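Example 9 (inverse folding). The structure is encoded as follows.
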């Protein structure tokens, strides 16, 4: 992750859980810091640019294995995700339905005997074949083919959702890694402050209560570091879960969490709605429902059965050719109920297509607005809030070193800076999540 240019080396974002608290102490701290502006030669309570022991191998991100990129994580998910493999098997299964729909009715062979006396009995062997009329076979094939199209659309939807999930999990892992680093930096600041307070207490410049407060702050920073490391392990587990059983060891995730995606024009999103996975699936379901209605309409015509056979009459003493035809009479069952049901289901599928289109438009608008808002907030935090919070902390720290401020002022400044950094990280993550949601809705993988 590359930090804004206004941040000092080795410090950018904090793991503090108080991301949503307002910067209430910023104005007062800036005023206090101006009093100590002349004391800039004093040493601030800030971490050095070199990594400290608290920032190293304790984190789960330091696990053995090569570095992981987004494209590698996506390839592993596309290859091993169980849900995606199930969707592929569902598509493969429809090939059997298409093949079966092409089959014609099997012929029947019949045998009958009249009379049991040898001298007068008659034996008949005949072959019966049902002939489909009214386009039943063609309609049945269209239903199976539309079912295959539905499965193909569901596979595309599952793949788009998986791509978005991988992107969200990957950027979440990047953020979790950064939180661990920043938690270590916060702990180093707290440790430096506690050591400085201890020296001043030993010199008799401040009361022992100030050192106690510094120790409490250090314990809180240590707890935050432990929470950040736990969150990192969870983030790594969430990414692994998308790979299914084909899990391989990996080290740190490589990427720039502050490389924010652009906000696409609303008109461009509207033009791509018709090709979205949800719309394609709803459209194919409608086509399948219409094909089913055509099939039920064709079934209202009865299929005749032709017969061809040989009859052996013992009394006559010769074989006789038997030819026949039978046609069911649609008197009791005209298939009207199935026709009505198929028509109403087709109407339902058409309404669901309209509903899917309206819902997709609303979801796209919401995701785009969230992307735009979170992106603007991240930029504002980087350009305005973070530099001011950092300056307030540095000046308050120098003032404390010179005995001009109490340690509570330093804690307030450090907490404000930490909250600004964690809010910046949260806004970055929200921006990537919104972009992934747009890709999920539209099935776009170009950004991944």
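The amino acid assigned to each position is listed next.
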């Amino acid at each position: 992750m590359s930090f804004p240019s206004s941040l000092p080396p080795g410090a950018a974002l904090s793991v503090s859980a108080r991301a949503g608290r307002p910067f209430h102490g910023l104005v007062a701290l800036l005023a206090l810091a101006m009093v100590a502006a002349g004391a800039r030669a004093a040493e601030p309570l800030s971490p050095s640019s070199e990594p400290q022991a608290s920032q190293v191998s304790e984190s789960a991100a330091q696990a053995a294995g090569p570095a992981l990129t987004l494209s590698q994580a996506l390839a592993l998910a596309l290859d091993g995700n169980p849900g995606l493999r199930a969707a592929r098997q569902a598509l493969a299964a429809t090939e059997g339905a298409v093949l079966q729909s092409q089959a014609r009715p099997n012929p029947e062979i019949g045998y009958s005997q009249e009379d049991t006396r040898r001298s007068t009995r008659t034996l008949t062997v005949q072959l019966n074949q049902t002939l489909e009329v009214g386009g039943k076979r063609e309609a049945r094939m269209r239903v199976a083919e539309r079912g295959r199209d539905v499965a193909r659309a569901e596979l595309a939807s599952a793949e788009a959702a998986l791509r978005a999930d991988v992107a969200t999990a990957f950027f979440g892992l990047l953020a979790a890694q950064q939180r661990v680093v920043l938690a270590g930096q916060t702990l180093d600041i707290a440790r430096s402050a506690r050591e400085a307070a201890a020296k001043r207490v030993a010199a008799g410049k401040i009361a022992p209560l100030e050192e106690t407060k510094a120790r409490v702050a250090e314990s809180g920073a240590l707890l935050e570091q432990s929470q950040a490391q736990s969150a990192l392990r969870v983030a790594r587990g969430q990414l692994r879960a998308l790979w299914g059983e084909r899990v391989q060891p990996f080290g740190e995730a490589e990427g720039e969490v502050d490389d924010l995606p652009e906000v696409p024009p609303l008109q461009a999103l509207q033009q791509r709605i018709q090709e979205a996975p949800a719309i394609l699936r709803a459209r194919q379901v409608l086509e399948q429902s219409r094909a089913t209605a055509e099939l039920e309409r064709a079934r209202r015509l009865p299929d005749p059965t032709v017969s061809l056979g040989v009859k052996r009459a013992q009394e006559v003493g010769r074989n006789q050719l038997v030819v026949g035809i039978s046609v069911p009479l649609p008197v009791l069952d005209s298939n009207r109920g199935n026709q009505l049901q198929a028509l109403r289901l087709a109407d339902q599928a058409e309404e669901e297509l309209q509903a899917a289109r309206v819902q997709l438009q609303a979801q796209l608008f919401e995701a785009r607005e969230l992307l735009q808002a979170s992106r603007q907030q991240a930029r504002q935090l980087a350009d305005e809030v973070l530099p001011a919070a950092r300056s307030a902390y540095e000046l308050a720290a120098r003032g404390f070193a010179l005995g001009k401020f109490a340690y509570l002022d330093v804690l307030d400044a450090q907490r404000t800076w930490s909250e600004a950094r964690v809010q910046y990280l949260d806004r970055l993550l929200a921006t990537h999540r919104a972009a992934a949601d747009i890709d999920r809705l539209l099935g776009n993988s170009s950004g991944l």
